Amino acid sequence: MPFLDNDPVAAALQLERVVMKANPQARTSVMSNEAKTDATIDFLTWSGDQANMEFNVFRYVKSPDGRGLVSLQVAHRFRASEPQLAETLRATRASWVKQVVQHDMKAVTQAVMALR
User: Fold this and answer.
1) How far is the C-alpha of 15 from the C-alpha of 103, rounded, in Å?
2) Where along the chain do its domains lie?
3) Closest Cα partner for 58 from 44, 76, 71?
4) SS3 104
5) Which helix (H) or strand (E) element contains residue 110?
6) pLDDT in tens, the chain (116 residues)
7) DSSP secondary-structure letter at 6?
8) What does 12-68 look like in DSSP terms, one character per residue?
């Protein structure tokens, strides 16, 4: 993301803007490490007709060569008519975010770098 200077925090904030533009009532949370070399956004959003909901956790880190960003996404889409799933997500949100934040991004960056 050269237009964001390959900044993980800027990428997470940009995604937050995109989500909020599409759905101003969406719930988002952006966090980063102290060095600002790693950023995570999680959000819950839904379709315009409110039939479907989606929970996402994205994590952004700079690529090893510094020329780009690498991201990891965990997502779950479900029908809004399944309130038990929404309750389950509320109960497991912290666990999902923690798992993404603690995930070893070396495997992800190595896989991406192998494509170059």
Assistant:
1) 20
2) 2-114
3) 71
4) coil
5) helix 105-114
6) 677 889 999 999 999 999 999 999 999 999 999 989 999 999 999 888 888 889 999 999 998 888 889 999 999 888 878 767 777 877 788 999 999 999 999 988 888 777 77
7) T
8) HHHHHHHHHHH-TT-EEEEEE-TTSSEEEEEEEEE-TTSSEEEEEEEEEEE-TTSSS
